[in-house]
Amino acid sequence: MPDVQAIAESVFRQESGKIIAGLIRLSGSFDLAEEAMQEAFASAIVSWAQKGVPDNPAAWITSVAQRKIVDQIRREQTRRGNEDALIYETEHLKTHHDPEIEDEAMHLPDDRLRLIFTCCHPAINQEAQVALTLRTLGGLTTPEIAHAFLVPEATLAQRLVRAKRKIQDARIPYQVPPAEVLPERLASVQAVLYLIFNEGYTAASGEQLIRRDLCAEAVRLTRVLCELMPNEPENVGLLALMLVQDSRRNARISSKGELITLEEQDRSLWDQSEIQEGVRLVEQALRRRQSGPYQLQAAIAAIHAQAKTPAETDWQEIAALYQELYRLSPTAIVALNHAVAVAMNQGFEPGLRLLDELGASGRLDDYYLFHAARADLLRRLRRAGEARSAYERALKLATNQVEQQYLRRRLSELSV
Amino acid sequence: MRYILLIYTQQAPNSAEEMESVKQAHWEVIEETTRKGILLGCEPLAPTQTATTVRVQDGTVLTTDGPFAETKEQLAGYYILDCKDLDEALGYAARIPSACGGKPGCIEVRALPGLPRREAVSEQAEQKSEAVLAQ
Question: What is the model's pTM?
Answer without folding.
Answer: 0.82
